[in-house]
């Protein structure tokens, strides 16, 4: 019994323990479960949590790029021809969207907040000066008023039509980008205002949207269930909407798109309530991507989200009034735009029925430029990069009593589209990479133990073999017949093909 062989045997014992413990931990996933439950606990909206500050004041810069469709042949279109448009832009605004009036409710399981957005022009990311650049587009207030008058008498329509013609209002208007976005005093609306004071005299696609919020939200904090983290409980006090025609379509599902629950898997659908689209949508996993050294899952709205009810009956509820449906790829949102015949789609009618694309010259939808996607870090659920693209259109059609519309073919006419993008800032990305490294190290700690066990095993085998060679004379013979054991030896263990006998000795259990 030498000190040397004792050390060898000790190595063997330690190695066996490491292997057993390590493999047990790997199989039981103790560390992974531990770190996951820690994540579920940490990723909640509480005053002390790490994510709360970035939820309240999101650090990544958000850019809103506006592109307009300049109409090049209005006369031809009014005479019954096909409209032709030219894309102009981008006009880029930096978006600031802090959460305000944050109040915890019901023992911290819910939180109230409003999310005002303000927009500051970024000249260096823009194609021109919005105060100067002119865009010829559809006279939206005029079309909205015509649409409204559809339910009135022919006589009234004719009178209004003649009046409009008298003051020089046409179906197309030429205005600066700034006016179209942020508002101008419109002659048609001014006239309406003098009769109906509740109608605003001003019109703009983003009129009164600078510094205002899209409603009061109550969110789940995720304290009760991590899957509810960031989910909308109520919007303007409502649990569901009432303007769509089915209960399913009226549901307010999911988060507002800024946060998602941790531990996302590829098979799930992520729900987002988009207040500007007046509905909930869902996103499905597309592929794995890498952004700033962070692995992420890309989620995008599958084509069934805007599919015609003919192909996807669950969308029937988005036809208002019930049964009045448009085709694939477009969504009429009159219900939440004061009745104006506004239609939203993806830019250039991406994923829409080709009849919409072909109805206007100058459109060329493609995936790279026109898809909407969201890249999420799956362990934490944090959005790493987001790109939301949506187009605003208006339905132009013949209206009895308005001779200017006499020859036009019913068209879903594109007006503008936006590209709202945000990418995680370098600081947060570095923090995220560190966090993920820790998560990976901790959850793989048992693998480390197994690895050490294997290394020790190799050391043990090498030492053992060398030791045996040295004292070949005194060593017990190799017993090929396992049933015959010399006195004092127990067990037969096969190490790399050699049978080894373990000797039992009352003085030392570990040495042979
Ligand atoms: C207008 O509509 C009619 C019938 O729907 C169609 O035959 C014609 O080709 C259309 N014209 C244009 C320019 O699209
Ligand atoms: C938010 O708080 C301000 C005062 O701090 C108050 O004037 C405003 O009405 C509040 N907004 C909402 C939506 O509660
Ligand atoms: C808040 O917690 C207290 C004590 O835990 C409990 O008595 C009370 O019912 C809770 N309130 C709500 C709204 O959950
Ligand atoms: C929006 O409001 C902010 C300040 O509240 C201002 O700096 C910015 O210029 C405004 N944006 C537009 C487009 O008017
Ligand atoms: C858009 O079209 C109008 C009318 O043809 C033209 O005056 C204007 O310069 C165009 N806008 C841009 C930005 O090219
Ligand atoms: C919607 O739900 C309400 C109650 O939750 C029910 O009374 C109503 O019949 C449902 N409507 C439809 C169209 O399913
Ligand atoms: C809301 O979520 C439910 C499932 O939870 C789904 O059946 C329904 O279609 C969703 N509604 C919308 C509008 O996405
Ligand atoms: C936004 O989308 C447009 C085209 O749709 C593209 O040209 C532009 O590069 C995009 N911007 C960003 C910041 O990705």
Automatic annotation (TrEMBL):
<keyword id="KW-0325">Glycoprotein</keyword>
<keyword id="KW-0812">Transmembrane</keyword>
<keyword id="KW-0472">Membrane</keyword>
<feature type="transmembrane region" description="Helical">
    <location>
        <begin position="435"/>
        <end position="464"/>
    </location>
</feature>
<protein>
    <recommendedName>
        <fullName>Scavenger receptor class B, member 2a</fullName>
    </recommendedName>
</protein>
<dbReference type="Pfam" id="PF01130">
    <property type="entry name" value="CD36"/>
</dbReference>
<keyword id="KW-1133">Transmembrane helix</keyword>
<feature type="transmembrane region" description="Helical">
    <location>
        <begin position="7"/>
        <end position="31"/>
    </location>
</feature>
<dbReference type="InterPro" id="IPR002159">
    <property type="entry name" value="CD36_fam"/>
</dbReference>
<dbReference type="GO" id="GO:0016020">
    <property type="term" value="C:membrane"/>
</dbReference>
<dbReference type="GO" id="GO:0006622">
    <property type="term" value="P:protein targeting to lysosome"/>
</dbReference>
<dbReference type="GO" id="GO:0005044">
    <property type="term" value="F:scavenger receptor activity"/>
</dbReference>
<dbReference type="GO" id="GO:0006898">
    <property type="term" value="P:receptor-mediated endocytosis"/>
</dbReference>
<comment type="similarity">
    <text>Belongs to the CD36 family.</text>
</comment>
<dbReference type="InterPro" id="IPR005429">
    <property type="entry name" value="LimpII"/>
</dbReference>
<dbReference type="GO" id="GO:0005764">
    <property type="term" value="C:lysosome"/>
</dbReference>
